[in-house]
């Protein structure tokens, strides 16, 4: 199976760009996340090509990976940012993102988060309920500011992905139901401190077909027509994120090809002049990262062979949460060991703490494994469960490797606690 871009085998050793992963693991310890700058920029480039010549703003969904150096890399390459919390807002600003290129998504924005976002002057609030609309209007009025809003609509299409990451169906908590959209826009237009500027949708994540996007587009454009008949003109249309990546033989459409199809439909429907916004996360960083982990012990058994490694569900939560598949490859191939079938598991005290099941691997204790496709929703979802410090991170650019986050210590973890006297 082909490796992700910028991950290559050289003389039996895995490299990210021009840097050996074995060398990085020896130098910085494990678990260690390693990212390729070129892979991120290449993934972003496909969107930029697809949208070239159109008024557009690519707002990287920073929940996928919010490490500052990653954000800086993408912001410097032209991205705005899609945020979902006050914490993400502070990170976005710290990474140097211009406030007007920040959009704020999410169903549960607090008043304090709204106030701060208004004070710094973010580009747009993606509003998800009528109650939120009313609160945002009130907060903006009290602050003497105007809030630009877009309303997230629920197009009721099946993204054909894992139920936990499908968001565009009627029964999901996200967006405004199709039937209520017009009334909600009327409510928004009547709010004294809101400027209605757009419409948005996001139908799910790890979408591997163009079909759900094309279906959602037609439904959203039907809504745009109906909304504009009420006298509100929509300046931008935001299609969210969701494009999948190849974890294990998945074949999502390329971003530029998908956008060629979507733009053609936009033109046919007469909306080719609107600014296009998108919120891609996983498809920008997912395949740009790996997580290195050392084999601690072999534990062969009657029914299962367990390979115990030093990364766990706190570092890589996706298998435990979504039964997700991540490829696992040794960073150095061995010829002196026969391959066995292993369940690769972490040290955490839970049976759900597995990284891969039934994997053919020729390995010995002390070897380093690379868990692939670990750039998105791994470090950003990492926890301290079992008082395990979060991993260190390295960004590779050509032959240069930069530590962008130090390994978290036990002292770091206890810093905010107050022991009893
Ligand atoms: N915009 C909104 C409003 C979202 O909710 C999301 C993701 C995105 C954009 C970015 O979607 P992406 O392009 O990354 O698919 N933790 C899960 C994924 C959760 C996605 C949540 N929303 C996982 O590891 O698969």
Automatic annotation (TrEMBL):
Homodimer. Specifically catalyzes the decarboxylation of meso-diaminopimelate (meso-DAP) to L-lysine. It catalyses: meso-2,6-diaminopimelate + H(+) = L-lysine + CO2. HAMAP family: LysA (MF_02120). This is Diaminopimelate decarboxylase. Pathway: Amino-acid biosynthesis; L-lysine biosynthesis via DAP pathway; L-lysine from DL-2,6-diaminopimelate: step 1/1. Its EC number is 4.1.1.20. Its cofactor is pyridoxal 5'-phosphate. It comes from the Bacteria. The modification N6-(pyridoxal phosphate)lysine is found at residue 63. Pyridoxal 5'-phosphate binds at residues 242, 279-282, 377. Residues 47-285 form the Orn/DAP/Arg decarboxylase 2 N-terminal domain. The gene is lysA.
């Amino acid at each position: 199976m082909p490796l992700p871009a910028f991950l290559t085998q050289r003389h039996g050793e895995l490299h990210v760009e021009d840097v050996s992963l074995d060398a990085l693991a020896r130098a910085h310890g494990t678990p260690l996340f390693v990212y390729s700058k070129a892979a991120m920029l290449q993934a972003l480039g496909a969107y930029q090509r697809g949208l070239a010549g159109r008024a557009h703003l690519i707002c990287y969904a920073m929940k996928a990976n919010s490490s500052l150096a990653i954000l800086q890399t993408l912001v410097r390459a032209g991205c705005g940012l899609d945020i979902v919390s006050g914490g993400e807002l502070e990170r976005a600003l710290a990474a140097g993102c211009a406030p007007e290129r920040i959009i704020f998504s999410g169903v549960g924005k607090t008043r304090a988060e709204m106030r701060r976002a208004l004070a710094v002057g973010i580009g747009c609030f993606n509003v998800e309920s009528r109650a939120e609309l009313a609160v945002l209007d009130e907060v903006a009025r009290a602050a003497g500011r105007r809030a630009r809003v877009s309303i997230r609509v629920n197009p009721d299409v099946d993204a054909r992905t894992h139920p936990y990451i499908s968001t565009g169906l009627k029964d999901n908590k996200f967006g405004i139901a199709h039937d209520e959209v017009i009334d909600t826009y009327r409510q928004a237009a009547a709010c004294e401190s809101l400027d209605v500027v757009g419409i948005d949708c996001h139908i799910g994540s790890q979408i591997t077909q163009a079909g759900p996007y094309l279906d959602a587009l037609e439904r959203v454009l039907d809504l745009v027509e109906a909304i504009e008949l009420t006298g509100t003109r929509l300046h931008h249309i935001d299609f969210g994120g969701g494009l999948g990546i190849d974890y294990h033989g998945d074949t999502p459409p390329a971003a530029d090809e998908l956008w060629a199809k979507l733009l053609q439909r936009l033109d046919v429907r007469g909306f080719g002049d609107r600014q296009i916004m998108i919120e891609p996360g996983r498809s920008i960083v997912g395949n740009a990262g790996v997580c290195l982990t050392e084999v601690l012990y072999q534990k062969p058994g009657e029914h299962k062979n367990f390979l115990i490694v030093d990364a766990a569900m706190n570092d890589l939560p996706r298998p435990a949460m979504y039964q997700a598949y991540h490829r696992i490859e040794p960073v150095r191939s061995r010829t002196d060991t026969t391959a066995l079938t292993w369940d690769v598991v972490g040290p955490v005290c839970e049976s759900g703490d597995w990284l891969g099941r039934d994997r053919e691997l020729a390995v010995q204790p002390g070897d380093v494994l690379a868990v692939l496709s670990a750039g998105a929703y791994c470090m950003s979802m990492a926890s301290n469960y079992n008082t395990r410090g979060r991993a260190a991170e390295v960004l590779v650019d050509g032959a240069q490797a930069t530590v962008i986050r130090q390994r978290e210590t036990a002292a770091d973890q206890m810093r905010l606690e107050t022991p009893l006297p």
